[in-house]
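Hi Q.,

Before the meeting this afternoon, I wanted you to have the adenosine monophosphate prediction in hand. No need to reply - just skim if you have a minute. The sequence and ligand are here:
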Amino acid sequence: MGPIVLLGVPGAGKGTQAKRLAQRYRIPHLSTGDIFREMAHSGSELGARLWTDMRQGNLVPDELVCAVVAERLAKDDCRHGYILDGFPRTVPQAEWLARFLAQPPSQGPLIVIYLTVGYNDLYRRLLGRRSCPKCGRIYNEFTQPPRQAGLCDLDQTPLVQRKDDEAAVIRERLSAYEQQTLPLVEFFRGRGRLLELSGAEPVDRVSERIFAALEANRLAAAADDPPREAEAGQS
Ligand code: AMP
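Predicted structure with the ligand bound:
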């Protein structure tokens, strides 16, 4: 399995699906949002600056994002593939990734999974999102509630809401997505392996579709299907 990018609007279910993919293929799940949240809570000066951007729903500067990703991808556990969740999020970040993947050693073709969800669903998803601070499992108060209200099913830890999942910040994040991230759909479509799937269905159904699409893609690549062979890292 080559590197996988999960692309989609905030609330499309990238984090949930990335965790499932990581488990299935035993490859690391790299969420730039999680990395920055950890840095923001570290108490460092850089962390405080990051938090200012994140708290307002703005994107973190490209240069810093790429430096953080480069450091993470250099680790040993990324040698056999990885899942990028929330990266790239701008055209310069995608161009950086393309250059990175073009360098030896070959990491296999990049696959981009684009999860689509109608805007009407998103507010409900984001406002209802809760996560377990201990194990990272994600819930939704409306669509995927825990068995016991407010507590993680796995370890009974009280669930938390992200500070940037508030209505005013959500608006800013969706606007950043439309302006800076949405152009990546065409960027990747034009370069090959964009797998577009609806993220609006129940979580298990979306996972099944992703696994099936990846398998179909793997078989097509093995059969050397020319139209699907172009790598996102090329051109
Ligand atoms: P996420 O958890 O992916 O929704 O990310 C939370 C926040 O972290 C975003 O709203 C941005 O402020 C920041 N962030 C995460 N990934 C990136 C990225 N690739 N580029 C710029 N900012 C990012």
